[in-house]
Amino acid sequence: MRFKSFRNRPPSNTRITLIALAAIVAFSSIHAIAQETLYSDYPQKRGKVESLQWNDLPSWMTLSMELRGRTEGQTSFNYTQNGDRIYELTRAYGAVEVRPTSFLTGYLQFMDTHALGLPTHVVAANMRDAFDLRQGYLDFHERPGGVPIEIIAGRQELKFGSERIIGISDWTNNSRTWDGFDARIGDKNRIDLFSTSVVAVHPTSLDKHGAGLNFHGAYGSITTWIPKVHLSPYVLVHTARGVTSNQGIKGNEIETTFGAEIEGALPAHFAYEANASLQRGSYSNNSIHAGQTFDKLSYTLAKVPWTPRIGGEFDYATGNNNANSNVIATYDQSYPSNHNAFGLVDLFGYQNIRQERINLDLGPSKNFTMLFQGGFLNLAQKNDSIYSSSGSVTLKPPTGGFATTSLGQEFDASAKYVYHDHIVANIGVGHLFPGEVLVDNKHGAAETIGYFSLTYRFRVDKQSETSTTQK
């Protein structure tokens, strides 16, 4: 998130930090009710969708609503010393689902999002969208020969696996959707074949996608072939017209990403997750040669109070060393859910970056979880730019490249509590200790973020149904 300065009186750095830390401590004393323990890793949601009854509603219709408010306080907006900001992000999603036949479902969802406390001219595109269509699709589903087949046509969500490659970025006020088609074949073992274009948010007019469908893919999900292993191979194709190469030649882009994500359980309470992919293609007259990998290993102390889970993580996305002007080596992060991928401050994207991180998850009770993280952030290449969480350039390298690769270190603490199954509270604080790259290039102001949010979801049917946890 990037903002220009404004004249509202800002809170002090100390106040933001103390509010968030005090709230985390207060949460740790709350008595919990029974619910399955789930750790705090993004992007999983918590809580249940409350089911309400309205007898006058047709049996073939369901209404639903999600309400979320999040207070955020940040220091050093836009890397500016003493650039403190505090504001309220509000989000309302409302939807109607109709089922005219056994094989057809229609879905419409609106969104209304605002950033209270910020002047309009400093509000980022992912913060505000006044009453717009977020999703609207037809879902055709059948089981010929016992194999589930589903075709979704229209504006919809795409999210796969850990969402580090394709996700909706639910943390943002205006979470991501696509226009296009998705064909899903299978159940426990499934493949998605899609052709889409991402929707661009326009706060004061209707949201729409760019010209044509330019993001295509095949994403598999295999859960039964290997015991305790979830394997997800994928091939993604991104196209664009009118790009300009390093030599100033205009042309088209065709980029193919192929890789796989795997996660599973190991003996002795160990678990793992890994994702690796390569990118190849052409960018006008330049060649694309890039790639990424992230790897996680965790150990759960199952018989220890609060069930601690200790984990280590390594993330790497290639950058361009500019040794060959005909080659583009900066990894294209596609459409990830980047929140907390590189710390709660969310300053960096999955491009030209290397991170080592340690995590500690705690579950004091079955509906209360805590997460503590320490990360070490570096550039993959000194001759490439620093990229934001949206993939845009934050800071270009000077002639000859940056002197070092150190972006800094980050510490984060967050907690999640589910009250009476349906009200979800999130709270956290994160701090970035800037490294030499930022300090030496006028971006060295330390950044702290503190936040507190509440989320409530419900659905209305003709007859009361058992609440279900949202996937």
TrEMBL record:
Keyword terms: Signal
Claim: Ubl conjugation is one of the keywords in the record: no
Pfam family, one: Alginate_exp
Coiled-coil segments on the chain, per record: none
InterPro entries per UniProt: Alginate_export_dom, Alginate_Permeability_Chnl
Domain Alginate export, residue spans: 61-449
Keyword Amino-acid biosynthesis among record annotations: no
Signal peptide start-end: 1-34
Domain of life from the UniProt record: Bacteria
The protein's name in its UniProt record: Alginate export protein
Species whose genome carries this gene: Edaphobacter modestus
